[in-house]
Amino acid sequence: MSLRLRTITREEHLDFLRGRPSASHMQVPAWGEVKAEWRTESIGWIDEVGRVVGAGLVLYRQLPKVKRYLAYLPEGPVIDWFDPDLEGWLRPMLAHLKEQGAFSVKMGPPVVIRRWGATAIKEAIGGGQAKRLRDLEPDWYEPRAFDLAERLRRSGWLQGEDGGAGFGDVQPRYVFQVPLANRSLDDIQRGFNQLWRRNIKKAEKSGVEVVQGDYQDLAVFHQLYQVTAERDRFIPRPLGYFQRMWRALEAEDPNRMRLYLAYHDGEPLAATTMLTVGDHVWYSYGASADHKREVKPSNAIQWRMMRDAYALGAGVYDLRGISDTLDEDDPLFGLIQFKLGTGGDAVEYLGEWDFPLNKLLHKALDLYMSRR
């Protein structure tokens, strides 16, 4: 199949995505409006009869003082990654992005390599069998993914080493997912560990009420988010970022973004955002108060989101990033510890890959990023 690539309209992009079971929330056209500091473009692969058979959202970040750009396709593009003629997809993309002034291209193929079930992970932690996920035998793996990685390397694509934590990429390489397809809600809850089930019941008995919020409630979410940022020592995004996200995603699809708040005695104790594309639902941002942790608002709000995702027909509830550490003494261990209680799977993606179109500028960007 001979493919050509061109800029596509927003509607062409959305029409293509509607015909697929899912795509990353960072590959919908509205995500470009969320990332207002980047220039954005929707690109499409066109077959011989003029159909759009692949699409990608490109974010362009300009270098200071010169019109050269880093072209970034987060968790994309959405193409046939296992096509034997992968070059037939990537070659026209690189040529197009170079014409647009890109000096380097970063992409994140949405391809899963391995999965580890919660049972196997818990046994490995309890028995000290492995210190990292990648040292543990997976419950499932995709053999074609290893061939894909080798083909990318041979074609000049580069992947940096991150020491195993899974945070060398901009987007997480390791995530935690709860499968919803072909299961009842009772099946899903039975998959929770005893602590999670007990905490959900405790929240119910304590009178925790989880409600779906609206645009006005983003201010409540943001107050809790700032408390969380101070506690966990990260730099919070401004309220305007979440307001822009809501406006852009809601305009594209009324179900694209939801806000949930957990109240106890009329006081907000936890808040979360949820994103949906096709049959994939993501827990996006979470926030919680420092007090009244004993009434378990976080467990209550997660269970409500899972039930709502199930009602939407989702096949996957995605709790997003974890590290690959299984070492209980590692500061990053808490990322997987809470999520393990859902009985889901740790999932490894292929990770992010770079193609230096201008090696000198690409190297300069690498040096700059390493010193940040």
From TrEMBL:
**Family affiliation:** Belongs to the FemABX family.
Q: Where are the transmembrane segments?
A: none
Q: What biological processes does GO assign it?
A: cell wall organization; peptidoglycan biosynthetic process; regulation of cell shape
Q: Which PROSITE patterns match?
A: FEMABX
Protein name, as recorded:
Peptidoglycan bridge formation protein FemAB
Q: Which UniProt keywords apply?
A: Acyltransferase, Cell shape, Cell wall biogenesis/degradation, Peptidoglycan synthesis, Transferase
Q: Which InterPro entries match?
A: Acyl_CoA_acyltransferase (IPR016181), FEMABX (IPR003447), PG_Glycine_Bridge_Synth (IPR050644)
Q: What domain of life? A: Bacteria
Signal sequence extent: none
Q: Which GO terms describe its molecular function?
A: aminoacyltransferase activity
Q: Which residues form a coiled coil?
A: none
